[in-house]
């Protein structure tokens, strides 16, 4: 289920996730919210693969217990960065353009080098507590200042728009985000190669990727992208990296074929959800009968309205890999978005079981249960959704569906509280406070629900947010 957490002023159907009600959850068919920041992408299959890529690296770096999160950014260019010491941000373009697992693993090893080296140790405590959406929004605000200054001087509208995102304390955040000095980058290179060697992996992919950056000038200092500018790639640095990488005894080690297949499956999935249909079929022509190609075709088919054909294709995938949770998830998602929520329940139950109760897939199952309109499912939906949001705290869709379920049950106090939590996660502080204030009047003073509602009413805006 590739979900785009989108934030726009007018409702807009995108390719990402969505529910007929409001903010949605479903593979890349998203409904929009308000323009509070750039979208991130959520997908259990992709996130699980990235976690498996980074877990041994983090263990080698002594960061295994730090609960480092992987965040996928809805940007097609190749880039990855760290911003707050507890999240590694990866553009979906970095996954798409990494032909082998080793290439993206090398990038993750480099970013882990920044974390292990304490290169962000001076980041404000506020940044450490900020939500993912705000971190990205602040970073893009800094980029707007850079681009605006280049396009028309420091007084240009774009530069002023970017500057408006930062108060005096925010300026420190901007400097920290964009002040990666060359020595830090070189140290991160060395640390990344060290971590790769410690885990028995080649640094070839890391070198190949950074060599491409230099050859294509992707990290040119004159670029307007703040992430790009933060990673200068002089030729001498790439040469030093090559020498270091070649010294590893694992230089010629290849990726495991099974891991390569999973990597190719994720790339196919992202292509199907994020690219135009004609682009998908250029990447994966009908003559290509590989599993990743068939995966891309099935997703693209359902996204473009041919549910019957899509189900036939998905069933063929399930027949080949009956224990693949993501095939069952896509089947349930296709049925749900095709207006058949009752039929979506069974494959989504299977997906939840096979995925070891993935919270994002649980949210999709909860959505299907709610969408049936059958009150017999209400208590089950509430139980599933409460478990999901307890383990996945930054997905508004879970709270949205929970609010709908509570509303159907007539529990308006919990419905208001869940709606307030969803609004808060979207950065809509005014709506969150209004709903939480109403929820407080419905709960007995001092009860857990009242306390949670009071926390939202009293919450201060995150860095860069308006108080509304």
From TrEMBL:
<dbReference type="InterPro" id="IPR011990">
    <property type="entry name" value="TPR-like_helical_dom_sf"/>
</dbReference>
<dbReference type="GO" id="GO:0008233">
    <property type="term" value="F:peptidase activity"/>
</dbReference>
<keyword id="KW-0862">Zinc</keyword>
<feature type="signal peptide">
    <location>
        <begin position="1"/>
        <end position="32"/>
    </location>
</feature>
<dbReference type="InterPro" id="IPR051156">
    <property type="entry name" value="Mito/Outer_Membr_Metalloprot"/>
</dbReference>
<dbReference type="Pfam" id="PF13432">
    <property type="entry name" value="TPR_16"/>
</dbReference>
<keyword id="KW-0732">Signal</keyword>
<keyword id="KW-0378">Hydrolase</keyword>
<dbReference type="GO" id="GO:0006508">
    <property type="term" value="P:proteolysis"/>
</dbReference>
<protein>
    <submittedName>
        <fullName>Zn-dependent protease</fullName>
    </submittedName>
</protein>
<dbReference type="Pfam" id="PF01435">
    <property type="entry name" value="Peptidase_M48"/>
</dbReference>
<keyword id="KW-0645">Protease</keyword>
<dbReference type="InterPro" id="IPR001915">
    <property type="entry name" value="Peptidase_M48"/>
</dbReference>
<keyword id="KW-0479">Metal-binding</keyword>
<keyword id="KW-0482">Metalloprotease</keyword>
<feature type="domain" description="Peptidase M48">
    <location>
        <begin position="48"/>
        <end position="244"/>
    </location>
</feature>
């Amino acid at each position: 289920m590739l979900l785009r957490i989108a934030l726009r002023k007018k409702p807009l159907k995108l390719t990402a996730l969505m529910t007929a009600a409001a903010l949605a959850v479903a593979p890349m068919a998203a409904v929009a919210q308000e323009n509070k920041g750039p979208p991130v992408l959520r997908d259990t299959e992709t996130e699980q693969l990235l976690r498996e890529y980074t877990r041994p690296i983090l263990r080698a770096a002594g960061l295994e217990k730090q609960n480092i999160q992987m965040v996928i950014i809805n940007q097609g260019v190749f880039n990855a960065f760290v911003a707050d010491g507890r999240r590694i941000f990866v553009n979906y373009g970095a996954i798409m353009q990494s032909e082998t697992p080793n290439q993206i693993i090398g990038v993750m090893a480099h970013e882990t080098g920044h974390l292990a080296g304490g290169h962000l140790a001076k980041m404000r405590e506020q940044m450490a507590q900020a939500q993912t959406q705000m971190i990205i929004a602040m970073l893009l605000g800094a980029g707007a200042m850079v681009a605006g200054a280049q396009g028309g001087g420091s007084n240009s509208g774009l530069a002023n728009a970017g500057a408006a995102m930062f108060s005096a304390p925010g300026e420190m955040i901007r400097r920290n985000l964009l002040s990666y000095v060359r020595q830090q980058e070189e140290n991160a290179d060395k640390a990344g190669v060290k971590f790769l060697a410690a885990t028995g992996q080649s640094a070839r992919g890391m070198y190949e990727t950074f060599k491409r950056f230099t050859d294509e000038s992707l990290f040119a200092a004159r670029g307007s992208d703040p992430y790009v500018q933060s990673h200068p790639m002089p030729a001498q640095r790439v040469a030093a990296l090559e020498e270091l990488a070649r010294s590893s005894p694992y230089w010629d080690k290849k990726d495991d074929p099974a891991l390569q297949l999973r990597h190719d499956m994720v790339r196919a999935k992202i292509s199907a959800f994020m690219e135009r249909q004609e682009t998908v079929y250029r990447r994966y022509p009908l003559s290509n009968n590989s599993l990743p190609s068939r995966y891309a075709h099935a997703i693209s088919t359902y996204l473009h309205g041919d549910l019957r054909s899509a189900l036939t294709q998905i069933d063929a995938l399930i027949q080949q890999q009956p224990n693949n949770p993501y095939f069952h998830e896509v089947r349930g998602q296709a049925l749900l978005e095709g207006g058949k929520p009752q039929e979506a329940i069974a494959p989504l139950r299977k997906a939840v079981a096979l995925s070891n109760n993935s919270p994002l897939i649980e949210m999709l199952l909860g959505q299907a249960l709610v969408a049936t309109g059958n009150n017999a499912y209400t208590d089950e939906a509430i139980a599933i959704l409460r478990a999901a949001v307890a383990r996945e705290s930054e997905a508004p869709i879970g709270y949205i569906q929970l609010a709908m379920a509570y509303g159907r049950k007539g529990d308006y106090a919990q419905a208001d509280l869940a709606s307030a939590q969803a609004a808060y996660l979207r950065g809509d502080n005014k709506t969150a406070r209004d709903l939480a204030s109403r929820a407080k009047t419905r709960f007995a003073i001092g009860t857990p629900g009242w306390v949670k509602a009071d926390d939202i009413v009293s919450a201060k805006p995150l860095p860069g947010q308006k108080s509304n």
